[in-house]
Design a protein that fits this description.
two-stranded antiparallel ribbon, glycosyltransferase, globular, transferase, RgtA/B/C-like, mainly alpha, membrane
């Protein structure tokens, strides 16, 4: 959204008010109600902890600051923007569900509110509310909103910085230098959570171009610089390498992978790397809606680029709506270009990351949802109809696509079930197991090597109160447990915890006839036997 000397407000946006004036209740109540409803949705759909990266971040938080026992996990321990806040929560709630879910939920709510704010400021309440709801209900975002991984929190922090930059651009915030410091802190924090979020940082100076002076820009740059200096000193102290995280992150593509995994991102045709984002979006239940929003965002960006070139050659200036819609295509390009290059275009034999993992693409999700919804709204406004119909057209167009996309996300489509029925967010088997464990009197419990990493979260209540003080043992085969011990199996054939199910099936291909079943959870995903 290149700046001009003066930029008229969009009719649907709020009228400007005095900077020190409080927003009226009519401005606060709708987003507050949406945010509260989204918080309830997340709390009611907590994701099942996973025995992979998620548990590594919990381990890193428990021993923060520390180095991992195996250098292969350095990149996780070095993401202190995620592990440090989690360590603080762990001081209060221990190694518990509250600790596991707290920071991700806070980040998801920040993302939801920031998307609403950007849409509201640039295009009006309808675009803000619909964009927030559509993005918030995307299945992978619902799951990511309650699981301990860095991608969504980094996206949320950056999107919050963008929302503040838009508000500053429009002159809606007083104490500008204070807010510029806040933006700098958010950017620095986002880098400490996930390093390649820096690719989209240039969007912020683009939004603030010709809106802040040199001295004010120092208020933005200083926190970012201090973040870099602080991390460099921390890495030098802990690892003896000031650039430890950059070295660990740049080597992710060279980590050993199973042959079946390696062939999904090594030595592929060029078009596969270029087409990864739409290809992976198409696999989601809500894929048709998301692809439509992505296409509309890119189309709006192309229109904006053409009109800016014409204006540069002396033609008519691009209108404010065009520039506002085009900024989201720039947002996408800032991430798509470097990720695609590093993900295989530059060196197909040694990609730096796996582009098929959609969580790497989270930073552009707010861009194409906001951009697509805004493009639909603008198209609806452009329809030539009688005055009353012209007023309703944008709402009808936007809400129809939003309902379709959100419905597909929640309920799914043939061959692609929605997130509402997924055991990943609906299984209560592990809390049910905790209740049984607290009253069972069991002294020794055996679990496969993957579930072994998850179960300690459930030896305490949701808020960290210890409910079981027995011993947990890793199960590799049925001959290990002694008579009287208990064996637990979880998620065989389910996506609640796929690694747990695979490990349980490998360690326990059959249940000995002498074992007595003592618990089957209501969803039939977790089973406990007592060894006879």
């Amino acid at each position: 959204m290149p700046a001009t000397a003066s930029e008229p407000a969009v009719a649907a946006a709020a009228p400007r008010r005095r900077r020190d004036a409080l927003p009226p209740p009519a401005e606060i109540l709708p987003p507050a109600a949406l945010l509260a409803a989204y918080a309830v949705l997340l709390v009611l759909d907590l994701s099942v902890p996973q025995p992979v990266d998620h548990s590594r971040y919990m381990d890193a938080a428990r021993s923060f600051p520390s180095r991992p026992p195996n250098p292969i996990f350095d990149h996780q321990y070095l993401r202190i923007g995620l592990t440090a806040p989690t360590a603080l929560v762990m001081k209060v709630f221990g190694y518990s569900e509250a600790t596991y879910h707290a920071f991700p939920i806070a980040a998801a709510l920040l993302l939801f509110g920031s998307v609403y704010a950007i849409g509201r400021l640039l295009f009006g309440r309808l675009v803000g509310a619909v964009s927030a709801v559509v993005l918030g209900c995307v299945g992978i975002v619902v799951v990511a909103g309650t699981e301990l991984l860095p991608d969504l929190p980094a996206t949320a922090l950056f999107t919050a910085a963008v929302a503040l930059a838009v508000a500053l651009r429009r002159g809606l915030l007083g104490h500008r230098r204070v807010w510029l410091v806040v933006i700098g802190v958010l950017l620095g924090w986002s880098y400490l959570v996930r390093e390649f979020i820096v690719f989209v940082w240039p969007l912020v100076p683009v939004l603030l171009w010709r809106r802040i002076g040199l001295r004010e820009s120092l208020c933005l740059v200083t926190p970012v610089a201090l973040t870099g200096v602080g991390e460099t000193a921390f890495n030098a102290w802990l690892y003896g390498d000031p650039l430890a995280r950059l070295h660990a992150g740049s080597g992710l593509g060279d980590l050993p992978s199973r042959p079946e995994v390696a062939k999904t991102f090594h030595d592929l045709p060029l078009w596969v790397y270029l087409w990864r984002l739409p290809q992976q979006l198409a696999t989601l239940p809500e894929g048709p809606g998301l692809l439509l929003l992505l296409a509309l965002t890119l189309a709006a960006g192309a229109v904006c680029a053409v009109r800016l070139v014409r204006a540069w050659r002396g033609g008519a200036q691009a209108g404010p709506d065009t520039r506002r819609a085009g900024v989201f295509a720039l947002w996408i390009a800032l991430l798509w270009v470097p990720l695609t290059l590093l993900g295989g275009v530059l060196n197909p034999a040694h990609p730096k990351l796996r582009l098929q993992l959609l969580r790497y693409w989270y930073p552009v999700f707010p861009a194409f949802v906001l951009g697509g919804v805004a493009a639909l709204w603008l198209l609806g406004r452009a329809v030539r109809r009688p005055a009353r119909a012209r007023a309703l057209a944008p709402a009808v167009v936007v809400c129809s696509v939003a309902l379709l996309t959100t419905g597909l996300a929640v309920l799914g489509r043939p061959g692609a079930p929605g997130w509402a029925g997924s055991p990943r967010v609906s299984s209560d088997a592990l809390p049910e197991f905790r209740s049984w464990l607290a009253r069972s009197g069991a002294r020794t419990v055996w679990a496969d090597t993957k579930l072994y990493r998850v179960l300690p979260i459930y030896f305490v209540s949701r808020t960290g109160h210890r409910v079981w003080r027995g011993h947990l043992r890793p199960l590799t085969n049925a001959t290990g447990p002694a008579a009287g011990d208990y064996v637990v199996s979880y998620s065989v054939g389910s996506d609640a915890c796929p690694r747990c199910g695979d490990a349980a099936k490998a360690a326990l291909p059959g249940v000995p006839s002498t074992w007595r079943p003592v618990l089957t959870t209501r969803d039939h995903l977790l089973h406990v036997w007592q060894v006879g």
